[in-house]
TrEMBL record:
The chain crosses the membrane at residues 71-94. InterPro entries: TgpA-like_C. Keywords: Membrane, Transmembrane, Transmembrane helix. Residues 142-210 form the Protein-glutamine gamma-glutamyltransferase-like C-terminal domain. It comes from the Bacteria. It comes from Microbacterium pumilum. This is DUF4129 domain-containing protein.
Length: 229
């Protein structure tokens, strides 16, 4: 009797628990609840992952195209050449990022003074002063325009504190055909700006001609002409 009662009690408990194998709907619900947990969501591929996978699959399919008559290899070579051409064209059109950053953010200081004007703006201001016979200012502004123009082109780097003659020597390495003229322009700037010698129409004309010469000349190496302090 005791064994019979024990077996009956176990059957009652199992009936309360329910079947050990869930039905189809119950199993689907349990699986959906489990997959909804954050740990499974974090394992899902991101948008970047999907894009990278799609690009990789595109190139994989591109080079696996089967063409009759030996055209498959030729197609792959042509596709590779087109990709290389597109990369070269992008560099030609947009240039190097470093050069773009330099042109977009010229240094605020120029020969120890704050100067935010562009080379073209300085040239216009120099011409305006020259039209009024203010030769001192015209000479100084035109040499600053020359220096700013060289910096904007990325031909010379000018750290804070660089002197005009240090700049002229560095610019002479970038523009060797105008090295002598650049040194003469730096001397004219020094004479008027620091030695207080009077500017003249002839001195302004010479500095302007040197500026025009440099503008029309291509630098030899735009990356090597650093200015020592």
């Amino acid at each position: 009797m005791g064994l019979t009662a024990t077996v009956a009690g176990l059957r009652t408990r199992l009936a309360d628990v329910g079947p050990l194998t869930p039905s189809g709907d119950e199993a689907r619900r349990l699986a959906e609840n489990e997959l909804a947990k954050p740990v499974y969501q974090a394992a899902e591929p991101t948008v970047i992952d999907r894009i990278a996978r799609a690009v990789g699959q595109f190139f994989e399919r591109l080079f696996q195209v089967e063409l009759g008559g030996g055209w498959g290899s030729a197609f792959a070579i042509v596709a590779t050449i087109l990709v290389v051409i597109l990369i070269v064209v992008a560099f030609i059109v947009w240039g190097r990022p470093r050069a773009v950053r330099r042109a977009a953010a010229p240094p605020a200081a120029l020969f120890g003074e704050t100067e935010s004007r562009s080379a073209d703006e300085l040239r216009r201001d120099a011409a305006s002063r020259a039209s009024m016979g203010e030769w001192d200012a015209a000479v100084v502004l035109r040499f600053r325009a020359l220096a700013r123009g060289v910096i904007e082109r990325g031909a010379v780097d000018t750290p804070p504190g660089a002197t005009v003659h240090a700049f002229a020597r560095a610019a002479g390495r970038a523009f060797p055909s105008a090295a002598v003229e650049l040194e003469a322009a730096a001397t004219a700037f020094d004479d008027v700006r620091y030695l207080r010698r009077p500017g003249t129409a002839e001195l302004y004309r010479r500095v302007a001609e040197i500026d025009d010469l440099v503008v029309a000349t291509r630098p030899v190496d735009a990356d090597s002409a650093g200015v020592p302090v």
